[in-house]
Amino acid sequence: MSRLALGCMSFGDSTKGAHTWTLDYTQSEKIITKSLDLGINFFDTANVYSLGSSEEIVGACLKKYAKRDDVVIATKVYEKMTASPWGRFRLGAK
């Protein structure tokens, strides 16, 4: 595992979630492939980054450019992704 991790909060669909500044698939793909070329094989993401689209982009790129046994993916599970306040925090209780 590389000593540095690539944080993936900036990857995702800008129409999902609260971050309108996210990078789309094409932009994210360039960063992910450059990271792999430089020996970075540790990726950090979370289910709430752009309502899951960050994880989708990371997964698609790694599937295309890396072998599963050669990368480490750290993800975090925060609250349930919903607009309703009643759905908050239930995911962690399961």
Automatic annotation (TrEMBL):
<dbReference type="InterPro" id="IPR036812">
    <property type="entry name" value="NAD(P)_OxRdtase_dom_sf"/>
</dbReference>
<dbReference type="GO" id="GO:0005829">
    <property type="term" value="C:cytosol"/>
</dbReference>
<dbReference type="Pfam" id="PF00248">
    <property type="entry name" value="Aldo_ket_red"/>
</dbReference>
<dbReference type="InterPro" id="IPR050523">
    <property type="entry name" value="AKR_Detox_Biosynth"/>
</dbReference>
<dbReference type="InterPro" id="IPR023210">
    <property type="entry name" value="NADP_OxRdtase_dom"/>
</dbReference>
<keyword id="KW-0560">Oxidoreductase</keyword>
<dbReference type="GO" id="GO:0016491">
    <property type="term" value="F:oxidoreductase activity"/>
</dbReference>
<protein>
    <submittedName>
        <fullName>Aldoketo-oxidoreductase, NADP-binding</fullName>
    </submittedName>
</protein>
<feature type="domain" description="NADP-dependent oxidoreductase">
    <location>
        <begin position="3"/>
        <end position="81"/>
    </location>
</feature>
